[in-house]
Amino acid sequence: MSQESFCRVCSGKVREFYDFGRHPLSDAFVDPEKVDDEEFFYRLAVGVCRDCTMVQLMEEVPRERMFHDGYPYQSSGSVVMRTHFEDFAKRVLNAEDLGTDPFVVELGCNDGVMLKVLADAGVRHLGVEPSGGVADLAAAKGVRVIKTFFEEETARRILTEHGPADVIYAANTLCHIPYMDSILNGVRALLAPDGVFVFEDPYFGDILERTSFDQIYDEHFFFFTARSVRAMAERFGLELVDVERLPVHGGEVRYTLARSGARQPSNAVAELVAEEETKRLTAPDTLSAFGERVTGIREELTSLLRRLRDEGKTVVGYGATAKSATVNNLCGIGPDLVSFVVDSTPDKQGKLTPGTHIPVREPEAFSGPYPDYALLFAWNHADEIMAKEQRFRDAGGQWILYVPEVHIV
Ligand code: DWN
Ligand code: SAH
Ligand code: ZN
């Protein structure tokens, strides 16, 4: 049933365009000993604001349920992502417009993969990370980190203790935070007069183009476009001055915000906004067509997996991603269709996937013996994983992908 909610950026009415049904928390892996305990479920549905065009979830999950000491995701788990973050840190180190003693703050620094480079170079920095387990990993690398949620009050405290920030950075974090007014008021308070707020998140244009519907889950509250980010920045005395498309995580945009009037916006901003206009990204027919494609993928993927099961083929999952909670729970994929999922994250191994309870095992289980098919839940890391697992292909194994459509390679 379609319901109404109010935009977390501008208070306008949000029109729902897809209802995924009841879903568990995407990173709440289940201890097999506690399988009878009730899991937390919420209604996963996505809509678009009629006024500012911000795409967002219809229902918010309390932040403490998602981000806590047991939060399992570690950013360093992919070589490609490690390089990506190290490259960003090097860019900061080489930036000519930063003064002699810049101060860099990162929201959601996770295990410290980016900040470690700055810490090693002696740059003043601070990570803000509410998930205690991963924050401890960052601290163990020599990164300075406070274990708390960033919000306006945190920003003011940092300002008092450390002074203004020249760069505030947030990767795959801003889209996780529904309380945007508190965040952007905090950013404006903390930012130095010529400072920049740089954030990168999955780009809604890419989600539509690739039908990567599994980017939609509890932790991803907002789905940004250049147009909606530009309008959002303006409400808070900030200005979108640059956009850069990134290939990581299936397509992202890195947005740069500065204080209004402080910097000249690049041509790339106007160009991306114009492209979004031409593509009618948030028009009702575009969004309903996306919904139809999602339903189509659901039907195709379930019938493929059922057929393979009936033919006696073995199918294993690769990558117990947060995203896969959406796929598994939307399609009803449990251990009858996918025997187990392999994943390199220590805190996921030995657990069961949220909602549909597929056992998660260590990567070594993949080859012992290789399955006939591997369902690539970590499709955003396809190049890295397929290269690493070449022997699976050599042994006759085949990959199943469902982005941008169901296909076997
Ligand atoms: O936005 C978010 C992103 C940055 O990370 C968070 N909300 C949660 C998380 O999302 P995800 O779990 O969908 O992210 P990934 O990066 O697609 O997860 C990859 C998973 O696959 C990890 O659990 C690690 C695992 N993996 C593996 O087992 N072998 C990954 C690689 C590259 C591998 O070789
Ligand atoms: N930046 C990392 C981690 C992304 S996962 C990367 O790109 O790989 C999202 C992170 O945001 C989690 O580590 C979570 O604990 C953190 N987070 C959630 N809400 C936050 C908030 N209000 N302030 C700071 N970090 C937050
Ligand atoms: Zn709005």
Overall strand count: 18
Q: Which of globular, elongated, flat, extended, rod-shaped describes the shape?
A: globular
Bound ligands, named by name, code or SMILES:
ligand DWN, S-adenosyl-L-homocysteine, zinc ion
Distance between the termini: 37 Å
In terms of per-residue confidence, which ranges show pLDDT below 50 for 5 or more consecutive residues? Answer: none
Order of strands in the sheet with most strands:
7-6-5-8-9-12-11
Describe the structure.
It is a single chain. This protein is α/β, with parallel strands linked by helices. 33% of the residues lie in helices and 23% in strands. A hairpin with a 5-residue loop joins strand 11 (238-246) and strand 12 (252-259). Helix 5 packs parallel to helix 6. The two termini are 37 Å apart. The mean pLDDT is 97. Bound molecules: ligand DWN, S-adenosyl-L-homocysteine (SAH) and zinc ion.
What is the topology?
Elements: E1 5-6, E2 13-24, E3 41-49, E4 55-57, H1 63-66, H2 79-94, E5 103-107, H3 115-120, E6 124-128, H4 132-140, E7 145-146, H5 152-162, E8 165-171, H6 180-190, E9 191-202, H7 204-210, E10 222-223, H8 226-235, E11 238-246, E12 252-259, H9 267-279, H10 284-310, E13 315-318, H11 323-331, E14 341-342, E15 360-361, E16 373-376, H12 382-388, H13 390-394, E17 398-401, E18 407-408
Parallel strand pairs: 5-6, 5-8, 6-7, 8-9, 13-14, 13-16, 14-15, 16-17
Antiparallel strand pairs: 1-2, 2-3, 3-4, 4-10, 9-12, 11-12, 17-18
Helix pairs in contact: 5-6
